[in-house]
Amino acid sequence: MRSVKKIHGRGVPLAIAGLVLVALGLTVAACGSSGSSGSASSADTMLGAGSSFAAPLYTKWASDYQGVAGVKLNYQAIGSTAGIAAIEAKTVDWGATDAPLSAADLQTNGLVQFPTMIGGAVPTINVSGISMGALKLDGPTLADIFLGTITKWNDPAIAKLNPGMKLPSTAINVVHRSDGSGTSWMFTSYLTAVSPAWKSQVGANTSPTWPVGTGAKGSSGVAALVQQVDGSIGYVEYTYAQQNGMNTAQLKNAAGMFVKPELSAFAAAAKAATWKPSEGFASPLVNEPGAASWPITGASFALMQKDQQDAARAGMALKFFDWAYTDGAQTASSLNYVPIPAPVYKAVEKVWEQQITVSGTAVWPQ
């Protein structure tokens, strides 16, 4: 592993990655004997780590799949940056990130990347007097809130977007991720697309230098902190907002329409996706066209090593994702994730066949 891992322009020191991997090693060691790619896990247990954005679905898939196949998934929602570090160090069977790696980075590290679901990052608020789903924001105003330029909920910029709404003079308490996060990358990619000020001062990053606010670990940490303090605003994957009964804001999209976060809005944005196998299927989905599109939409990706040591263990992971694409699609929809379309996952499985091998022999199909 390199001494400094570059993800979208920011370095992750080796010392930090090392602490993450030690923690993972302790967790995995409890599962049993050594498995493929250097991960310590039992013959019927695979280990995944990374994205908290996708964690609600991975957790449900894991429960359902164990009932069907008798195979367990131990998934650690440690954030995309740490998930990338873990798969590069070969301490997990697969990593998960919402900030896709470039084709060059995949090549350098001998990785295969493929999408597993599509979801939406949403602004969540806790402001007394504002009813559920009523607040409207646009991109520049949201950026100014996270830049610290707008500091009160009754600021004229917010009032202009919400005529007739009684807005309190409560101070705005910004909450953001403290760990390296694909959700942060998705959120800041959107702010970069819609706000020249954000683009010049902060930019898109998994671990941005936040101008203001309080950090919390993971999407669950952001959700909890927003709920604790009146006047707060943060961002989480939509399922976290739903599961916690949180108030979410409407956003003005690229077509100039205010839309609420919901499955149909994520699906509308996903229609514009271009999935290129040569680029690791990376497809930015922020600020997409269309009157119904949610502007902060994105895919979550799995990462696996191309050169595997154990065909059975590699096959166990691929069988899980093959099941997830088909039998798990309805579960994805029920949790407000958009399933990966059949033409895309068939292209993904073709890549598995071509690139995931043991001593030069293809692992898939089984």
Description:
This protein is α/β, with parallel strands linked by helices and 366 residues long. The chain has two domains: 4-118 and 278-283 and 298-362, D-Maltodextrin-Binding Protein, domain 2, CATH 3.40.190; 121-273, D-Maltodextrin-Binding Protein, domain 2 (3-Layer(aba) Sandwich). It is built from 14 helices and 17 strands. The model is unreliable at 1-40 (pLDDT under 50). Strands 3, 4, 5, 6, 8, 9, 10, 11, 14 and 15 form a ten-stranded mixed beta sheet that branches. α12 (311-326) runs antiparallel to α14 (342-355).
Task: Describe, in short, the structure shown.
With 366 residues, the chain is of the alpha/beta class.
How are the SSEs placed, and which strands pair?
Blueprint: E1 4-7, E2 10-13, H1 14-29, E3 45-50, H2 55-69, E4 72-76, H3 80-88, E5 94-97, H4 103-109, E6 111-126, E7 136-137, H5 139-147, H6 156-161, E8 173-177, H7 182-194, H8 196-201, E9 214-216, H9 218-228, E10 232-237, H10 238-243, E11 247-248, E12 250-252, E13 258-259, H11 263-270, E14 285-286, E15 296-305, H12 311-326, H13 329-334, H14 342-355, E16 357-358, E17 361-362
Features:
alpha/beta; 2 domains; 14 helices; D-Maltodextrin-Binding Protein, domain 2; ten-stranded mixed sheet; single chain; elongated; three-stranded mixed sheet; disordered N terminus
How many β-strands, per DSSP? 17
Could you give the distance between the termini? Answer: 30 Å
Enumerate how many helices there are, as a single number: 14
Task: Briefly note the structural class of the backbone.
Answer: alpha/beta
Compute the gyration radius: what is it? 20 Å
Based on the coordinates given, report the CATH architecture of the largest domain.
3-Layer(aba) Sandwich
CATH superfamily of the largest domain: Periplasmic binding protein-like II
Query: Which sheet architecture does the biggest sheet show?
Result: 10 strands, mixed
The mean pLDDT is 90
Fraction of residues in helix: 25-40%
Q: Give the number of domains.
A: 2
Poorly predicted segments: 1-40
Name the overall outline. elongated
Q: Write the CATH fold name of the largest domain.
A: D-Maltodextrin-Binding Protein, domain 2
Text of the CATH class of the largest domain? Alpha Beta
Share in β-strands: 15-25%
